[in-house]
Amino acid sequence: MPAARLAVLARTTDPRTMLRRFLAVDAVVTGANGLAYLLAAGPLDRFLGVGSGLLLGLGAFLTVYAAGVALLAARERPAAPLVRAVIEANLGWAVLSLVALVLWLTPSTAGAVWTLLQAVTVAWFAAVQYVALRAADSRKNAD
């Protein structure tokens, strides 16, 4: 996925701004997901079939993680090592979601679909953040 295509999504051609926007969207989506798990664990347990205890734990983790990603997105120049850590965490989350679905979880059909959609979404965040980071690094090296 070339940076030029991402510029359309991010509504900017500046790689640093693009990176910050993708980090911010990741933080918002992840934070909303975490808060939903925290605030509606019971109903979501019944709908997704994954257990309210697991949802509460995931909700707490995701909410804290989202706050960290939001702080990183708020920086004018997010530190590359921290951005790489977010990318790696997102990739790890996507893979772990799929592994858990196959080996551990026994969700409802809605829960299985949700887990797959979540894994794809988080992998997409990792991909766009990676491309934006590379573009920002290339620009920094050209300056």
UniProtKB/TrEMBL annotation:
Alphabetic keyword roster: Membrane, Transmembrane, Transmembrane helix
Record's keyword annotation contains Transmembrane:
yes
Keyword Transmembrane helix carried by entry: yes
Give the stretches traversing the membrane. 21-41, 47-73, 85-106, 112-133
Q: What is the recorded name of this protein? A: Integral membrane protein
Taxonomy of origin reads: Bacteria, Bacillati, Actinomycetota, Actinomycetes, Kitasatosporales
